[in-house]
Each structure stands twice: as C-alpha cells, then as structure tokens.
Amino acid sequence: MSGSPAGGVGAEVLPPSALPGDEELALREVVRDLLAREAPPAAAEFAAGDRRERLWATAAELGWPALAVPEECEGLGLDFLTQAGLLEEAGKGPFPGPLTTAAAAAAVLVAALPGDARDRVLAAIAGGAVASLAVVGDEAGKDLTGAAAAVPDADLARSVVLLGGSGVAAEAFVVASEDIAIEPLGARVDPGRPLFALRFDPAAALALGPAPGGLAVARALLAAELVGVAERSLEVAIEHVRDRRQFGRAIGSFQAVKHLLADVYVAVERARSLTRGALAGEPFGRPPAELERDAAMAKAAASEAAQAAVRTAIQLTGALGTTAEHPLPWLLGRARVGAQQLGGAPALYAQVGREAGRR
User: Fold this and answer.
1) DSSP string covering 181-216, please?
2) Which residues pair with 171 in a beta bridge?
3) Sign of torsion, CA 352 291 2 314?
4) What's the pTM value of the predicted model, to 2 decimals?
5) How does pLDDT run across 60-71, given as a tens digit for each residue?
6) Contact 190, 331 (CB under 8 A)
7) Quick check: is 263 in a domain?
8) Residue 220 within a domain
C-alpha cells in the first residue's frame, strides 16, 4: 500500500506537475539507504545524544538543506515539490534531525524580499547551518513579544526565523542564536525533534519585511513529512497483520482489520494529494489566499492521517508496538509533535472556514 500519488485515492485530482520526477525518486532512494544504514528504527537507539548532529552533518554533505534555496543564495534552486518528496521519505524513519525544521525556515526566507540579511541566512542554511522557525503573535500581529514557545531544534540552530503573525501579510524577522535564551520544554515526546521555549530582545531581531506565502509553504513541507510518518505506520501495521495468526488465519484477513487499514489508507492518500497539490508548480506565483487555503488543508489532513495511522498500527500490533525496540513509539512522537507545529488541524480547518465565509 505504499507508493507514489500516481496510484490510490485522490490521485486523479493531481496535475502532472505534482507527480514525482526522476530527481525526486532518486533522492528518496538515497534517504531510504541512509536511514536504513545510520538510523535503525528503534526508539531507544534514536535517543543517542549525538545522532541528530551526526545525521544532520551527513544531510548537509549530501546537499539536502540546499534543495529549494535559490541558486543566487548558494542553493540548488530545485522546486519545493522535490524537497517535499525528500521530507516525505525522511518522515518514514523518521529522520532524527532538523531537516524539516531548516526547510520550513528556508521557505519563509525565500518568500521574503531579497536583501543582504535574508540572502546570508539562506546561504548559511544551504551550507548546513540550522535555522528554526517560530510564529509569534496572532494572525494579524506584527509586533514581536520577545518570547516563543515550542520551537523545534533550537539547541542546534544558528539563527531563528520569526514570523510576526500568521496571516498572508506576516512580517519576517531573523535573530541570531547568541541573542536567544533557550529552555527545554519538559520530557521529549520526540527525541529527534526536541522543543524549546525562546526568549530574546526584540531589538536584536532584524526585520526582513513581508513574507507572503512563506508560512503556507512551510506548513506544506511539514505536511509532507507527516505523510511519510503516516505511510510508514501503515506499512508497519500491514507487515504485522500479514504475519500474525489467530484461529489458523492471518489477522489481516479479518474484515474488521481490513476496514481499519482501508480507512488509514484513504487518509494517507488524501493527505498526500493535498500536500503535493499545494506545492505543485510555483507556489509563490499563486494568489497568497489560495496558497494559504491549500496548505492549511494539506497540513490539517496530514496531521490527522499521521496520528490515525500510528494509533491504528499500535492497536493492531498490541504490546509489541509499544516496546522501545519497535519503530512505532518513535513514529508516534513525530506524529504528535508535527501535528501541533505551525497549527493543529482544528485551528487550520477553522481558518479555511473563516476565509470561505468572507467570500
């Protein structure tokens, strides 16, 4: 039941430009090989202290942080859809490092007006410097309060990209790590993506101007990773029900089990189609309100799919799926953290509804 959006529910709504190309397929293969070699799927092993830094260094050597950074900023200048394919594959590990975090920050910077400060930070990200992204304030707010909560990978970040609001006219800022105080947020739900509370002097943040569509693309990239989490969870569940036998039959042959897996499959393919549709073509060339709507739907659907897929897999695997040697606890942590980043599903659906009501 794994595969590209070329097959399955929702595939017919995707334009040809949203389907995986040769470049994306090759990248996916490299990600699979790296995760199989360096990050075996067991939650206990992922918690190793230097694993995030080590895998991030490998990713930087392979040029992954530079994928969608413009060539004039020392990036590879590829499209966001190719980057989404890489992140989707990384979600299947899931990748224990700031790969999606840096991609989201870079998306906001690409959306901002070109300038020396913006270009320097983008070039640094392309070269392997970690940047985190934090949304500060409500939809219309542009004033920085000097605090941000639940910021991922801030311990590795050289800089933090701030959005003073979540609307289409949100202002972007950047602040260097030396001007930020960070504090870990309790127990790590996801050892590979720890969260931090940030405090900083707003005067130390450098204004970059409006970044229309930046948050939307960042959400869609995060959605791509969650699609990978969901798909891998579904694969784990299928592998188990094919092997596990009761009453002389594989439990995957039971109708109730088939229904559970079919519901998850539909959710995964819906999320995949919405995500790839949001990023197809040139996202920043579309009307910002349309891009915001499509990305919000994609992120909401992917958040729901990832959590539903992991819950179903744990239900079907029973106690086995809760052990430290099993991949599901790790996938559960990534699903729970990712579902709340940059807006949870209820808030995003409400946002889409409000926009529809204004028309």
Assistant:
1) EEEE-SS-SSTTS-EEEEEE-GGGSEEEEE-TTHHH
2) 164, 210
3) negative
4) 0.90
5) 999 999 999 999
6) no
7) yes
8) yes
